[in-house]
Amino acid sequence: MGAVVALLCVELAFVAPYARRAADQLSHAQPAWFLLAVAAEAVSMAAFARLQRLALSTGGLRVGLRAAVSAVFAGNALSATLPGGSLVSITYRTRRMRAWGAGLPLIGFTHAVTGVLSAVALVVLAAVGGTLAGDSARLAGAALQVSAACAATVAALALVRHTDVLRRPVSALLRVWQRLRRGKGGQTSADGLLGELAAMRPPARFWILGLGAALINWAGDLVCVLAVCHAVGSAPASDKVLLAYVAAMTAVSALPLLPAGLGPLDAALVLTLHHGGMPMAAATAADLLYRTLNPGLIGVAGWSVLLVRRRSRSVRGRIRPQGPYRVADPVHERGVEHGHLEDVAG
Question: Which three-class secondary structure state does DSSP give residue 69?
Fold first, then answer.
């Protein structure tokens, strides 16, 4: 928390000279572009929920879109508003998947494959930006990164197929896990876990659809950044916005413990947009407007989901089912068992 407060002070000191001019830009923001930014963020969140549903479906688990979207909003709210929120978000999404009926192998597969596909999609966007800017070196680097990610994924899937190699380390991990839980259940055998992992064989269609959903997730957020730039009265080139966005997301991934990439994302976005031709005041205003949506509105929506879920659980805990009829006398119960219906009727 101290580090976050210090970072906020540094960021405020950096933004202060441009705050007045940025406020003037925000006061003349165009509502139509702002609504487009809101819609783009909604599409981005729905695409990530679709990606998670696809990953869970490889293990035969069907999750409704509404439940998946609400979990994504709540997880993003935790990630964006708490220090170390990315770890809290993973924990929350893990608990939600367990509540849906997913086993540990399917949950691990879902976390891993969503991370890999999201990283590959971001690299693809960086390659597109480099191509539009005429940077062939960036395209070659992106191709190398995508190839490395694909090779690592294929190697991991091949390793899962050979369960004999993994049986001893998985057994050791399970023993540590069960010792930490101190008998709270979860007595799953290594053979059972490895059998579930080996049974998951995602088809080629899954990888195509999953990469498409990951691309839509990033593209929706990118369209949001482009829309807020237009909303504050600036119209930068699309390739400049794309490069600024990739730089900002890369800065966030370098410091994952900061809530919503506070500081690094803003500095990278503002400076890169300014380097791309936007006035500093307009770039600062665009960043503030983008932050109003992400994590602003997304955080409000996510915490609303969490509060509604907590309230519904507490209400269900207070309600006790009561039928219209109740047998209070055990003699009457015995009468029913022995056919003495007149006693119960009386």
Answer: helix
- Per-residue model confidence as pLDDT tens digits over 259-295: 777 777 888 888 888 888 888 888 888 888 898 888 8
For residue 215, what are the contacts with CB-CB under 8 A and spacing of at least 6?
121, 124, 125
Cα dihedral angle (164, 170, 171, 176), rounded to 10 degrees? Answer: 170
263-272 LR contacts (CB < 8 Å, sep 24+): 263/7, 263/8, 263/10, 263/11, 266/11, 266/15, 266/291, 267/11, 267/14, 268/244, 269/225, 269/244, 269/245, 272/240, 272/243, 272/244, 272/247, 272/248
pTM for the full predicted model: 0.75
* C-alpha 275, offset from chain centre: 30
Q: Is 185 left (phi over 0), alpha (psi -120 to 50) or beta?
A: left
- Quickly tell me which residue has 């839509």 as its tokens: 216
Query: CB–CB of 8/262 below 8 Å?
Result: yes
Number of other residues whose CB lies within 10 A of the CB of residue 76: 22
Joined tokens for residue 126: 């960086």
**Would you state the structure tokens that stand for residue 196, as one six-digit string?**
């579930």
